[in-house]
Amino acid sequence: MTALPYFYPGARLFAAPIDLNGAGRYVHWGVVQLSVANLVIIGLMLVVFMAALLLPFPRGRGRR
Amino acid sequence: MSRRPRKTAVPDPAAFPTRSYDLVKEFTIALVVVVLLTVGLAAVFSSPDVKPVTLASWSRADGADFTATAVSELGGTSGTAGYGPPYNHTPGAAQKLGPVGLQSAAGVRIPVDTTNDFVLRPLRDAPEPPAVTAALATWAAAPAARQQAWTRAYSDALAKAGRGAPAKGDYGPVPVLASRLLGLARSGALDGELQAEGRFYQTDYTRPLLFLSDGSYLESLARAEHLGGDQWGMMNETGNFPGQAWLWLYTFWYQIDPFKSSGNADALIWGLMALLSLCLMLAPFIPGVRSVPRWTRVHRLIWRTYYRDQAMERDRRVSGR
């Protein structure tokens, strides 16, 4: 079985709007070497963590 | 030394206020959110789409590297040939954690004889031209020392020649065998030969992968994608996709001494991570570590409304006296 070539009819229609398959971008800081994608994910995780700490608990109707 | 305060009586759980909680509702909401996120992100970003590297693609792209690797497999001098368990019994090759030989403990579970498994058997199993039949017979008839001398001389000649033709010399049947193996690899037959398991579905890529990893082609591709061990590669993905960021601590140790220059790095880092994981599991019992939440007071930030109400209640009681 052969895979469909990238240029098959309709390929552009089904292609992802954002293509991440290009050359990766990396941040170097001393011994640390991080991909920008991982950095974004770590940043998002920190944002979620801070939101979990700071956002108020929802007050349900059944709360006594 | 001060005496610890006497513990107060445990309150009755039924005395606390309660609130209703719908676990099924929460599970359903979480499932729907995660499904929508997964489908949405996959539609926007797709997934890594790097073509697989095979023996065929390697031999077509870099025939010189393939031939040099094939000769090292034939002579038993490749990385796999000297790896030790689980592939073979190479004295002193196995990694140790102090006196404990972790790599040797499980024994040779996937025996690999690179000379026969990677070179001679595939050549015999494929239809043989007469020159290859004669070369195989010459190889089989020669003593081990002679075979070693041929492969060593041909490896040296290939290294000197670079991508050109090696100088003439006494290489015995090695050039014929290496050239035929290159032809088989380029046709795609070698991938099938090394994967053949005697079953209908061929899913064991151990042998082709070992052969590939003995050459420099696969490593150069991996390094170009920042997937090398000394490039924090364990937590990277190809292209601009996010990788396994949670492996940061595991891969961090490979970047610093003494691990990065140690031949026992895998065993040492495994041992260190096992120790750290044990410390994390036992955090509630380790003096000092178990007090970190009390010092950082993060819980007071999460339950700040409760603590504010408590403070107001206390102030009211004090002012009402």
Number of H- or I-type helical stretches of chain B: 16
Through-space gap between termini of chain A: 63 Å
Order of helices and strands of chain B: HHHHHHHHHHHHHHHH
Number of strands of chain A: 2
Q: What's the helical proportion of residues of chain A? A: 25-40%
Shape of chain A: flat
In terms of DSSP E residues, the strand content of chain B is: under 5%
The beta-strand count of chain B equals: 0
Distance between the termini of chain B: 35 Å
Keywords (chain B): Membrane, Transmembrane, Transmembrane helix
Transmembrane segments (chain B): 27-45, 267-287
Transmembrane segments (chain A): 36-57
Keywords (chain A): Membrane, Transmembrane, Transmembrane helix
Outline:
The complex is a heterodimer of chains A (64) and B (321). Chain A is an alpha+beta fold and 64 residues long.
Please characterize this protein's 3D structure.
Chain A: The chain crosses the membrane at residues 36-57. Chain A: Keywords: Membrane, Transmembrane, Transmembrane helix. Chain B: The chain crosses the membrane at residues 27-45, 267-287. The complex is a heterodimer of chains A (64) and B (321). Chain A has 64 residues and is α+β, with helices and mostly antiparallel strands. Chain A has a domain at 24-55. Chain A is built from 2 helices and 2 strands. In chain A, strands 1-2 form a two-stranded antiparallel ribbon. In chain A, strand 1 and strand 2 form a beta hairpin. The longest helix of chain A is centred in the C-terminal third of the chain and has 19 residues, at 36-54. The termini of chain A are far apart. The model of chain A has no long low-confidence stretch (mean pLDDT 80). Chain B is mainly α. Among the domains of chain B are: 55-224, no CATH class; 284-321. Chain B contains 16 helices and no strands. Chain B has helices at 23-45, 55-61, 63-75, 102-105, 114-125, 130-141, 144-161, 174-187, 189-195, 206-214, 217-224, 248-252, 265-281, 292-296, 298-302, 304-320. Classes of the chains: A alpha+beta (64), B mainly alpha (321). At the A-B interface, strand 2 and helix 2 of A face helix 1 and helix 15 of B.
